[in-house]
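Fill in residues.
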């Protein structure tokens, strides 16, 4: 597989992981309920994403850095919803 093909795998995986939380955020916003979302899960995910972003920057891995950053924004939104709709 070429380098371009390998990089495309990274981007495709990044897109799927990034959009995976969108249905949960939309549902939480519409229902104003986050009772089934663990705050510990959300904090662990945020921490892991910050570490991933750091790793991506240090190793110049663009797909990982881009999508982990977007996912961090999405996960932070979910965390804010969790705190707002206790």
């Amino acid at each position: 597989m070429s380098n371009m093909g390998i990089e495309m795998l990274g981007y495709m995986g990044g897109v799927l992981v990034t959009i995976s939380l969108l249905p949960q955020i939309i549902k939480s916003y519409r229902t104003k309920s986050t009772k089934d979302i663990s705050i510990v899960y959300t904090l662990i995910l945020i921490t892991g994403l910050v570490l991933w972003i750091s790793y991506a920057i240090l190793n110049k891995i663009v797909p990982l850095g881009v999508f982990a950053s977007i996912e961090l924004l999405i996960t932070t939104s979910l965390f804010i919803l969790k705190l707002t709709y206790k």
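The chain has one domain: 3-84.
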